[in-house]
């Protein structure tokens, strides 16, 4: 459990309120002006605990505490009675930190809201420029703008970045990556600009938006909520979760994202875990598709909550995913998607399980799913994976899990004869 970076933190100045209680030694580490991470070491089992939101575990804070203990000994941690109130929660796997004495939770919430408001208002001038550019682009026509100024998307993306709208800036930069010769270039660009314009109009009415939808707008703009705030105050759902699929994509040259989808057995909630990798760092170990995990997820605020964080109590079960719940036909699936999109208009991905569908091959290797009523759903899948999906079905109905983007359904896994196969 050694780590050279942890050794840098293994000093008393970083660990306040040190204590010992039986086999447990622990401390608090400042994490900003008003919050501390709570850290503990079970010396009998050599097991580490930390309330920070960072992964993988054990984290650097816990390793630093262990290094301090092994260097200074137990006498460096004064015996205390009673033990700190936060210790039992930490050992039980609850990851929320501790508000330091003297900090008023209401004042802290007000401070967070003030910071959030200020970040949102900083985007005001950027929206003025963006609305003017959008109106001019529509008036002149997409093809005209791009032909006269090939770097038009890059220029407006840079101005959005200057206005602290990192999410919108990325969306605009990605438009310049779509080949102009692509058959659906106009459709893709128009759809993206329509979502951006919707954000412009929503920003104008931000004072009247429901709180959950305002979070969605901020997320689309690029004003992210901190993980520690989600862990502290996000909606918590305890359930047994089937890991249905995982997909890794390159967003930009140095940024990749991994989407992992989980379905709650009791709640029926679909949860999305997002992990990002910058440069060549790679991803931390994640949950394996087909596995069953039991524990608590904390959901990000949203008008259609999907994204979540796993708490420390999540652990693997010996069972594997076999039977899944989902939609009996394509019409009910599309109706549910329409309701989700009405609630959260910037919904990038919608995941679902389609039951009793047959993979079919059409013209030009275009694959689709056929339901019991004869309705079809087009698939976004490679030729090789399409034929593999058909081979798995053997001409029989199977359950298919995937992501829907409004045009194509991308299979991530399928269940046939009691086994889940990933794609």
Number of domains: 4
- The amount of helix comes to 25-40%
What's the overall average pLDDT, rounded?
86
Low-pLDDT residue spans: 99-103
N to C succession of SSEs: HEEEEHHEHHHHHHHHEEEEEEHEEEHEEE
Q: What is the structural class? A: alpha+beta
Tally of DSSP helical segments: 13
Biggest β-sheet description: 6 strands, antiparallel
Count the strands? 17
Strand content range = 25-35%
| General shape | globular
Distance between the termini: 35 Å
Rg estimate, integer Å: 25 Å
Overview of this protein structure:
Helices cover 36% and strands 28% of the residues. It has 423 residues and is of the alpha+beta class. It has four domains: 4-103, no CATH class; 122-206, no CATH class; 233-320, OB fold (Dihydrolipoamide Acetyltransferase, E2P) (Beta Barrel); 330-422, OB fold (Dihydrolipoamide Acetyltransferase, E2P), CATH 2.40.50. Strands 6, 7, 8, 9, 10 and 11 form a six-stranded antiparallel beta sheet that branches. A hairpin with a 4-residue loop joins strand 15 and strand 16. The protein is globular.
Give the gist of this structure.
The protein has 423 residues and is α+β, with helices and mostly antiparallel strands. The protein is built from 13 helices and 17 strands. About 1% of the residues have low confidence.
Helices and strands in order, then pairings?
Elements lengths: L3 H6 L6 E6 L2 E7 L4 E8 L4 E4 L9 H13 L12 H7 L6 E2 L5 H18 L1 H17 L1 H7 L3 H11 L3 H10 L9 H20 L6 H11 L5 H7 L1 E18 L2 E10 L5 E9 L12 E9 L8 E3 L4 E6 L9 H14 L6 E12 L5 E4 L5 E3 L4 H11 L4 E7 L4 E8 L2 E4 L1
Antiparallel strand pairs: 1-2, 2-3, 3-4, 3-5, 6-7, 6-9, 7-8, 9-10, 9-11, 12-13, 12-15, 13-14, 15-16, 16-17
